[in-house]
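Supplementary notes for students who missed Thursday's class. We covered one full example, reproduced here. Read the sequence, then the structure, then the short commentary at the end.
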Amino acid sequence: MVRDRCDVGSVQAGSAKEVLEGRRVADATYLQKNLIVRLDDKLAADTEALARAEGQSLNETVKLALREAVERRQKDPAFRRRIRHIIDEDRELLERLAK
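Structure (token representation):
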């Protein structure tokens, strides 16, 4: 787990398999990731305008956009196949290392 620039918080988290299957697991604490996102001027201005029009903070607007993008991907069969392939590869690697 990446731990740079993280704050301790309390929300729901989940494993890759749970995310793939659309499930979440309650976790008492987790590390809240702070990201630096570089946007070109037009995208930054458009995002700020969207946030103002929706009466939201820029942070909430970006989080919502990311959440919606993740939800769309989770419903995409091709994406789900790619994730399943990664899970299978990781399982094979972990089984090899456990020997």
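Commentary. Residues 1-13 have pLDDT under 50 and may be disordered. The first strand starts at residue 6 and ends at 9. If anything here is unclear, bring it to office hours.
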